């Protein structure tokens, strides 16, 4: 046996449904069954590298303590490629997310994100391929999907829906239209 179980990526550090108000609270909680973190003994057949952490279905408002929390919990924080913050009370993203440069999957659905400007922060994650934002107030904004795809061109999946060639074309057209409107608005203000 190679010492690595093929099922391991399916066994993330799981702090879902723990009634956490902050990420730091996870340091005082036992993770859900099947989770193996920093302080547990190596079990035969499992690697000690956690690549995913679930914080879904809690009451988390802020991601500011993400780096110290993850660093305290896992052996190799740089290996984190999947974070799940779905169904919390997050209303703003934190640059702390950008410390996890290997993130490919980020679940943020069912939160309180209101501004598309929050999406711009995620452009610092070049490997991001899967993102969920549905169920946030920003989803109801005009041009939501086009803005997200125009801002994060590396996405392959948005809100559990594959990104199509038509989605890419729509995002590009939307970006050009918005750019034109911005230029016209600036010219108009300069003329006043």
Q: Bin the strand percentage.
A: 5-15%
Q: What is the helix/strand order? A: EEHEEHEHEEH
The total count of helices amounts to 4
Spatial ordering of strands, largest sheet: 1-2-3-4-5-6-7
Number of strands: 7
Average pLDDT metric: 85
- The shape is elongated
Task: Supply Rg.
Answer: 19 Å
Largest sheet composition: 7 strands, mixed
Structural class: alpha/beta
Question: What is the rounded distance between the termini?
Answer: 74 Å
Tell me the helix content: 25-40%
Low-confidence stretches are 1-11, 39-47
Your description of this structure?
The structure is a single chain. The chain has a seven-stranded mixed beta sheet with strand order 1-2-3-4-5-6-7, with helices on one face. It is an alpha/beta fold. α3 packs across α4 (165-191). β4 (105-107), α2 (117-121) and β5 (130-132) form a beta-alpha-beta unit. 25% of the residues lie in helices and 9% in strands. The N and C termini lie far apart (74 Å).
Strand-helix topology:
Layout (H helix, E strand, L loop, with lengths): L12 E2 L37 E3 L11 H8 L8 E3 L20 E3 L9 H5 L8 E3 L11 H8 L5 E2 L2 E2 L2 H27 L1
Parallel strand pairs: 1-2, 2-3, 3-4, 4-5, 5-6
Antiparallel strand pairs: 6-7
Helix pairs in contact: 3-4
Key features of this structure:
25% helix; disordered N terminus; seven-stranded mixed sheet; single chain; 192 residues
Short note summarizing the structure:
This protein has 192 residues and is an alpha/beta fold. 25% of the residues lie in helices and 9% in strands.
